[in-house]
Amino acid sequence: MLKMLVKNQLLSLKAYEPGKTVEEIKNTYGLKNIVKLASNENPYGCSKKVSEALANFSAEYALYPDGAAGRLRERVAKHVDVDPKALIFGSGLDEVIQIISRSLLTPQSNIVMAAPSFSQYKLHAVIEGAEVREVPTVDGYHDLESMLKRVDPNTKIVWLCNPNNPTGTYVNGTSLKSFLQRVPQDTLVVLDEAYYEYVTASDYPNTLPLLAEYDNLMILRTFSKAYGLAGFRVGYGIGSPDLIQLLEVTRLPFNTNRLGQTAAVAALDDEAFLQHCVRKNKNGLDAFTAFCNKNHLGFYPSQANFIFLKTDQANSLFELLLQKGFIIRPFPNGVRITIGKEEDNRQLLLSLQDILDHESRHLLSS
């Protein structure tokens, strides 16, 4: 009887199920150490400036946070060189995606997105009753031409995850500009740049100047990845001030907390730490890439803080690595492995080599 109380579309969805905790896995497999490389977290944590700011944090915990995120807004606006009114903040990018979806989508509308890509785009479209038009990636890359063909007058949002999660591939500047020129002006294009800070490719697009050319463009960024603040849940969107003002109606009044706002401001003040993490990540990616090439393994070249190995035996490979003390993320056609600290990467690659040499080479055959 309770099913009658909720939207019909919720019956086709499953609530997010977090994986087992590290302690649960230790107890199950009798392991002393577990390395989690499944959630694309920064293995180096966050800047010491964040810890210092929080240690000196003094506030009345009984009071609501600054609903406008004023100090953070000014700091981020300066960092990305935009009008403070062009920013909207959320409890991680998950909430910003929810805000956009709730504000724009109806049962008469549709979204266009790549597949595979970040699952929250589809989830919130389904909740709002909108049609989801998924366009398969080609060798892990967005198929922009095919995506354009799926856009029609009822398309409210086109989602571009750049770099894409879970493949790590990216849309270059030339391709993106050509795409934006052909998308109808009444369709919002959302560039999810959650992994922006990790990108080292020279032809990755500089998207912020494009906001002046395209009112129907919005850019998303987060403090959860390279800044190492996933536990504080702070993400933001950048777009036309007129659009942001409309989206603010849907945003909950006190959605980012005092500690998160303080931590994010402090993180922006330590560019040296950020660049240290980027260099370490690039070294880790290079090590994984060399390993895959040496062993003739299928993978997608990544510009994020993870790499995707292609295999049709993802769950079996996940289980084998779990037994060796590593948590990775399985997908239907492969596994996503977060780039960890140097020693963790080395040990995981040794485990993969052991699997190839002595157990099941077919597990890593795409």
Describe the structure.
- The chain is of the alpha/beta class and 366 residues long.
- The protein has 2 domains: 2-45 and 272-359, Aspartate Aminotransferase, domain 1, CATH 3.90.1150; 65-269, Type I PLP-dependent aspartate aminotransferase-like (Major domain) (Aspartate Aminotransferase, domain 2, 3-Layer(aba) Sandwich), CATH 3.40.640.10.
- The protein is 37% helix and 16% strand.
- It is built from 12 helices and 13 strands.
- The strands form 3 sheets. The protein has a 7-stranded mixed sheet, sandwiched between helices.
- The N and C termini lie far apart (45 Å).
What is the number of beta strands? 13
State the order of secondary-structure elements, H for helix, E for strand: HEHHEHEHEHEHEEEHHHEEHEEEH
Q: Pairing-aware structural class of the strands and helices?
A: alpha/beta
Q: From the alpha-carbon coordinates, what is the Rg to the nearest angstrom?
A: 21 Å
Subunit structure: Homodimer.
Keywords: Amino-acid biosynthesis, Aminotransferase, Histidine biosynthesis, Pyridoxal phosphate, Transferase
Protein name: Histidinol-phosphate aminotransferase
GO molecular function, one term: pyridoxal phosphate binding
Structural descriptors:
366 residues; alpha/beta; Aspartate Aminotransferase, domain 1; Aspartate Aminotransferase, domain 2; 2 domains; seven-stranded mixed β-sheet; four-stranded antiparallel β-sheet; 12 helices; 37% helix; 16% strand; histidinol-phosphate transaminase activity; histidine biosynthesis; aminotransferase; EC 2.6.1.9; amino-acid biosynthesis
